[in-house]
Amino acid sequence: xxxxxxxxxxxxxxxxxxxxxxxxxxxxxxxxxxxxxxxxxxxxxxxxxxxxxxxxxxxxxxxxxxxxxxxxxxxxxxxxxxxxxxxxxxxxxxxxxxxxxxxxxxxxxxxxxxxxxxxxxxxxxxxxxxxxxxxxxxxxxxxxxxxxxxxxxxxxxxxxxxxxxxxxxxxxxxxxxxxxxxxxxxxxxxxxxxxxxxxxxxxxxxxxxxxxxxxxxxxxxxxxxxxxxxxxxxxxxxxxxxxxxxxxxxxxxxxxxxxxxxxxxxxxxxxxxxxxxxxxxxxxxxxxxxxxxxxxxxxxxxxxxxxxxxxxxxxxxxxxxxxxxxxxxxxxxxxxxxxxxxxxxxxxxxxxxxxxxxxxxxxxxxxxxxxxxxxxxxxxxxxxxxxxxxxxxxxxxxxxxxxxxxxxxxxxxxxxxxxxxxxxxxxxxxxxxxxxxxxxxxxxxxxxxxxxxxxxxxxxxxxxxxxxxxxxxxxxxxxxxxxxxxxxxxxxxxxxxxxxxxxxxxxxxxxxxxxxxxxxxxxxxxxxxxxxxxxxxxxxxxxxxxxxxxxxxxxxxxxxxxxxxxxxxxxxxxxxxxxxxxx
Length: 583
What we know:
By secondary structure, the protein is an alpha+beta fold. It is 52% helix and 11% strand. The protein has helices at residues 2-5, 10-21, 34-41, 59-68, 86-98, 103-129, 133-143, 149-153, 158-179, 183-198, 205-215, 221-244, 262-281, 297-323, 325-336, 338-341, 352-370, 380-424, 446-459; strands at 53-56, 80-82, 248-250, 436-439, 466-469, 477-483, 486-491, 516-519, 522-529, 535-542, 551-557, 560-563, 572-575. The strands form 3 sheets. A 6-stranded antiparallel sheet has the order 8-9-10-7-6-13, with no helix packed on it.
């Protein structure tokens, strides 16, 4: 094994291994956000390079989108979610120019980027860990990391792969500057610029650039600072362009801008980082946190489990980190790379850079145990549990991780199938083009409501005149007919009962009792608030009687939409909490 892990062709071998492991992604088709991207890339709407500008914060534009049903009625007036990912968009435009109806070829394109990420990581480990079998072990651990499954299968998330490629290469070039000359530092800055042009995830690469200058450079302080100048200039220019271009997030509870809203970001990061570490080091996916109420027992268990894992990791790695500068580099890089991705709710697909340092740290500990015991305590009380902990981590990351990656691919495919089945259940008759589609209890808005127009328009199916979702959360509701044109809806768990429901509106933007949202032919009145200050009692007023043929009522049942009739005057109907496409 040592001979294999030090073989000169190992970087290529692990890159191919990663691609073969994720090969079933080729059969995944278009999934989730892919349909929104496909709509624009095929020329519907704005096909410009601003593909990842979902909402630019313009109040008038948001109002029009809300009136059409592209945004929910509860969206914040200045809701903004805009990402600068131009280089990634260019690769997607190339796909749709070459093979617009062949998603399998697009997935192959993404797998190439995955292979290049792993190849770059293997060279990174050889620069950091030297020409040792530890570098080969780290590369293998990184290649089979299950956190790479979704970006490999999810075309809209290819930006994570491309940003990671150039981010890792920026660290490799910085290491070369110590061996060759300072001109390599400009190569590092150029790679960082390409990474930032591909996706915000490349910000995490700066963690490794800083950690390298602190622990591994070994030259004078002035020389270290000089080698970081090109990357520092790139970061500054990117930040200016990002701000002037109107990119970032605003008034969203799911994405927090660290510069515009540092307090909310810090509060979120404290809750998100333990769960992200849980997702990196254990078989428990961090994505679970996005679908459970933040104050629920499940959320608390996840958070405190993450804290416990942090404690165990500190106990396992601290002796090595104290004695070994390479371990300190890997640890600091992994920790600092958490900060940019903590701006949103935990998701394993964000862990590329966290995994880069984490797998290097694990491989370095294995190497120390077997080849350099002087780096570790000799006491039996530490060494015996440490060996057990390392064995467990190797089982998790070499045996379970590949299995979890394949299961993740299958899960995402099932989720996509459920979404398409729900959309297919919306009637296709031509009458719907003159009707407002009233969706009573969709389990979420993005994929159960917003995706309807994207999928149907590409398929050439008639679109509703407007879409109205009464709510967009997995909560039970009771609907009472208050007058011929109105219904009163009680939401058992409130309008914002899980983190995903906060995507369009930050928690500090409270509604007030009696507040009204006026849309064409549709008015929402906030009639009651729960203890958290969120709406749980709503009255929906329509411009016409509820039985008017201009309204098409549908309710979510068993994963699809079915026709639904409002209750008779004075009567009530109760609907159970809907199960969404992820359940």
